[in-house]
Amino acid sequence: MSQSGRRLLVIDDDTIVRQSIAAYLEDSGFLVHQEADGHSALTWLMDNPPCLVLTDLRMPGTDGLTLLKAIREWDVELPVIVISGAGAVHDVAEALRHGASDYLVKPIVDMEVLVHSIRRALERHELIIENRQYRLELEKANKELKEYIRVLERDQLAGRRVQSKLLPPPAVSFGGINVDYKIIPSLYLSGDFVDYGFLSNRYLAFYLTDVSGHGAASAFVTVWLKQIVRRFFREQEIFNTKDSFERDTASLLKLINKEVIRSKVGAHMTCFVGVIDTHTHEMRYVVAGHLPLPLLIANGRAEYLEGKGKPLGIFEDAEWEVQSIQLPLQQQFSLVVFSDGVLEVLPPDNLIEKENYLRNILSKQQGSIEDICAALQINSLDAAPDDIAVLKIDNEMLK
């Protein structure tokens, strides 16, 4: 540690001792100011704060201990080293009790012992100052962080309310087909979204999407997505005719994909889109990177639908294959679609085992969406790691 510029105050009524100490310390690189008594020393240091005080204990008038007490009232952290020829245990204890950094006994035979004591006291003082500065900075950072979290929680709450307002009404029926859904929110605002509509009093169109990432950005993409889907339905008249039913399931995804890429929202999304002809129970659907695949439950069996496709918002020229299945007309069936958040909370370790677990549970479950969530033990999660969206479609024979 460099002594350059470090000013010390040396106080001793013994002129020879004081001057010899001051000379050695100046030769060691310190700036030294001398005073012969406690009163004049106290007056001087108030106007010229030193880095350290070295004081004799026994002096006429204001002695070293009185001076130490006065310094502590003025500056509790200023290093003070007490030297004395007395060396009584009581004096040592009193000096240390009132905050002396060290206590040395005169005569000081080896002046390097004194220099070492001074350096150690200065280092300890600097460490105290640094720690205090770090603590102040930490307290400031904590205060700013708390305010940031408060604003973030407020924004999250507002975002979730907006998102919830745009979700469709749950537990509705269209042309003999029941639709219900449940979204189990995660700790963070997220991008799971469900929507559906009944077109030309015949075609039930629905989708479940999961926007990448978490937070307000993902949530607001779902809000924006709902608006553009509704606009496409209105402008393109999708699923209003049998030709559109047979043709436009993939066309809808291509329109959304182009819009997502063109808008540069900085997010991609997985999606499952289906449309059911409620007169014939034929369902056409497309899969856009969606996992797990939907489960069709009928005759006590649960089977995953087939299909695959690229997610939306990444590949400009992506194409999607339209799949078609015939849903039971005279038998009970349920189609259950989950977002991938469910995979994060299922007990098995790998994806295949999780999918098998999910299928086995649902093959035994013909009840409501609440029954399904209860069987999977996902309706009692305090804070899921990701949103879990569940969309269930069945026929009225279940009622």
From TrEMBL:
<dbReference type="InterPro" id="IPR011006">
    <property type="entry name" value="CheY-like_superfamily"/>
</dbReference>
<protein>
    <submittedName>
        <fullName>Response regulator receiver</fullName>
    </submittedName>
</protein>
<feature type="coiled-coil region">
    <location>
        <begin position="124"/>
        <end position="158"/>
    </location>
</feature>
<keyword id="KW-0175">Coiled coil</keyword>
<keyword id="KW-0378">Hydrolase</keyword>
<dbReference type="InterPro" id="IPR036457">
    <property type="entry name" value="PPM-type-like_dom_sf"/>
</dbReference>
<dbReference type="GO" id="GO:0016791">
    <property type="term" value="F:phosphatase activity"/>
</dbReference>
<dbReference type="Pfam" id="PF07228">
    <property type="entry name" value="SpoIIE"/>
</dbReference>
<dbReference type="InterPro" id="IPR001789">
    <property type="entry name" value="Sig_transdc_resp-reg_receiver"/>
</dbReference>
<dbReference type="InterPro" id="IPR052016">
    <property type="entry name" value="Bact_Sigma-Reg"/>
</dbReference>
<feature type="domain" description="Response regulatory">
    <location>
        <begin position="7"/>
        <end position="121"/>
    </location>
</feature>
<keyword id="KW-0597">Phosphoprotein</keyword>
<feature type="modified residue" description="4-aspartylphosphate">
    <location>
        <position position="56"/>
    </location>
</feature>
<dbReference type="Pfam" id="PF00072">
    <property type="entry name" value="Response_reg"/>
</dbReference>
<dbReference type="GO" id="GO:0000160">
    <property type="term" value="P:phosphorelay signal transduction system"/>
</dbReference>
<dbReference type="InterPro" id="IPR001932">
    <property type="entry name" value="PPM-type_phosphatase-like_dom"/>
</dbReference>
